């Protein structure tokens, strides 16, 4: 397609296999969208497209991402407000016909549905860092580090000391929005010797948010980048190699099968099927 549809806070450029979204940097644009800057959404990552009435004379064009296709949305786990949803494009109501045209064009190109087996949308680029209430979190693509603040960290965290977590030792990330009560970012360890403390305030593998700390636009891209790195580092299950038979053994079994066939103990059809099975084992 190659056409551009501009709305409030963003413009969508429709291409044959993806939608390139560019977010504005104006003061009215939600900070999360400003930080994201630009995202390319492959159509294979999209489950559907909707066009619905919005508020105050607007319409909303929205792509529905497939579960598991976007690390940002997986980390958010449904906690984003509508205004911060990177898959929404708000337009003046008089552009509804044009918006419906593009919605139909995208729908016609969708070929996949259901959960995605891998991330299809690129994760936020590293390095990333942000300040939480009790410490500073940083991520360089391989290691997550927490450096505690004496003004906010619990005694348990001070005793544990500053922390470093290799991506290979993690199984996931748990993010609770700082816009909700008791928000936090917790790293889920793959082989922890003991169960992680229930309270993030006492868990050296977690940083807690507070008023003005760990804002969504800082902590969510961080969580998404870590989540994507963890997924990429997970070992690919080994596929057992096919067992190859000794050709001499196969030949002997075919010879014996032929004797049974000539003796009338095996039908023509049974002989053909079994011989084909034996030959396939070579």
Automatic annotation (TrEMBL):
Membrane-crossing residue ranges in chain numbering: none
Segments forming domain SHOCT: 252-279
Any Pfam family hit: SHOCT
Top-level taxon of the source organism: Bacteria
Domain DUF4429: 12-107, 137-226
Entry coiled-coil feature ranges: none
Protein name: DUF4429 domain-containing protein
